Amino acid sequence: MAPPRRPPLAHALARHLGLVLVSVLLAVSVIGYCALYLATQARLPGMFELTSSLNNTMPLALAALAQTMVVLTRGLDLSIGGIIDLSNALAALYLGTTAASMALASALILLAGAVLGLVNGALVAYGRLQPILVTLATLAIFQGLAIRVLPQPGGAVPEAYTALLVNTGAPYALVYVLALMLFWTVLRRSQVGIALLAIGDDEAAAAANGIDPVATKLVAYTLSGLIAAAAGLFLAAQATAGDATTGNGYTLTSIVAVVLGGVSLFGGRGSGIGAILGAFVTTMIVNILFFAHIDPLYQSFYEGAFLVIAVVLAEGLGRLVRRRRARA
Amino acid sequence: MSGGGKRRRVLPGLSPTGRRVLYAYAATVLLFLLGGLVRPGFIQATNVLTILTVAMFVGLVAAGQSFVILIGGIDLSVPWVLNAAAILLTTSSGGENARAAAALALTLGMGALVGVANGIGVAVLGVPAVVMTLAMNGIMEGLTLGLSGGMTCSACASYAPPLVQGLAHGSLLGVPAPLWLWLAVIGLVSFLLQATVFGRATYAIGTNLRASELAGLRVRATVIALYGLSGVTAALAGIMLVGFGGQASLGMGEPYLFQSIAAVVIGGASILGGRGHYLGAVAGAICLVTLISVLLAMNMAEYGRSIIYGVIILVLLLLYGREARES
Hints:
The structure holds 2 protein chains of 2 kinds. Chain A is mostly helical. Chain A has a single domain, classed as Orthogonal Bundle (ABC transporter involved in vitamin B12 uptake, BtuC). Chain A contains 14 helices and no strands. The longest helix of chain A is centred in the C-terminal third of the chain and has 29 residues. Chain A is globular and about 65 Å long. By secondary structure, chain B is mostly helical. Chain B has one domain: ABC transporter involved in vitamin B12 uptake, BtuC, CATH 1.10.3470. Chain B has 13 helices and 2 strands; from the N terminus they run H-H-H-H-H-H-E-E-H-H-H-H-H-H-H. In chain B, strands 1-2 form a two-stranded antiparallel ribbon. In chain B, strand 1 and strand 2 form a beta hairpin. In chain B, helix 2 runs antiparallel to helix 10 and helix 2 packs across helix 12. Chain B is globular. Chain B starts with 15 loop residues before the first helix and ends in a 7-residue tail after the last helix. At the A-B interface, helix 6, helix 12 and helix 14 of A face helix 5, helix 11 and helix 13 of B.
């Protein structure tokens, strides 16, 4: 390998530009949130705010990671909301009350999510269909199944389950966030992770280099389904009940988090950690709007405007860095 | 393509796109027959005209969606542009005929403006279409909710002007007025896409953006205009919908996003751009609405409708939406 022509730090910065940008974005939004909190509440946010922010973001962080798996292969998974719905509905009915039944039901629900993801993957890979269309159709199917399972919001989630996944007493969710980031880091360095990025970057070239595009897509969509199902479990634990429509909003917000996290919608570029941080930025923006006393009716307006501005700025910065690199 | 040579062609002399459009119409006729089997009154003229009228709302949105899908884009801002248009029409006209013309101009202008903003975001600022139009949907949602105070404003209870309601409910020569409007839109869109420089440029951009630029086409202006047109058709659908229903409501645009995309794709257009025809999207819209009507006629529960709806779209995709295998 040729030695880097530029100082290693600048090189690393340019290589992980998306991750750096979302980190800066998160830092700025956290500082903005703290400042607003201080101004309105006359104290800094404490453990309670940290815990609730973490707990509230977990489902979106999972949905964003699920979306990342597919987006990296140059796809888009619109069915994530449907898988969350179904997983959530199943959890509300079948978790049971004993530790063993909860563990078994959770495992089976995650497995169901993986199978649904696999169906998406098979339709995309073997059916040679466009991902956005396949998942548009399966979204309707999964939503229908979820309503079949749980026609009205209800069911029950045992207290112990809620205490484990969404502990309101202490920021245990930090452990889950770190575990997710560790999962991504390991995946990224595994053959699967390399294959994901490779086929997203250039499928023909990847195939020529011995990467199986069909198998890789199957894995990507299966992982996406599995992780989305986990988001459904966290939502069930949080609400202590089920709702077959609770996941619908996550299809679009997961795309927002992924984009803020610097994952390219054109595939092959991005990091799961970035997407998770993107999910936290989204939560922080909602918090900021709340403490800035913005009329909640205008919330989507600010989120939409923020998304465009963030993407335009990131694009501009990226162009600047690439131009400097080309000159170097 | 050499791969297709082995198969015996049904209807030689028809382009692959033409064949796909024909399939979509065949599927629609089949669905109508199926509906007739389920419920005898299903294929009576009045019921057919009702279904076609309902299909028009999807069809109008699908016209705009066709424009942007032909260049490999997508318009996710449809739901709240439509919703904003419906509310803007009723609030700005106050339900009075005297103010109807100005309100119509204002509403269509709003649609065009939002669409052009989408186009600028995509063509000039380089934001991916999915992100730009998704964000715009949020922006329009926030503005609509905020400015109307969550539909609590004093003018929000206004009805659509009788003139607009008359347009939505009237009929001419036994055919509902909305269908005449749809026919006009079909003629206009087909003319624009098939017989003008603008239309040829649209297909060229969808086939190969870089080559179109190098060939000296005004790519940016065309893309901006196409998104602008999509905003206009979404606004027009909102106007017709509020004319049909009388009053606007929050969330009335939601079903039209996925249905418009599905209609375009069922009609044989490629989501990657460069291939498709509005006549196909028209068939797709009728096909979808007929399907929903058949399922309703069968007294299918909501979940069943949703599942079958998804399965049918998948089947149609597998029948003719597949991409060529890479050699």
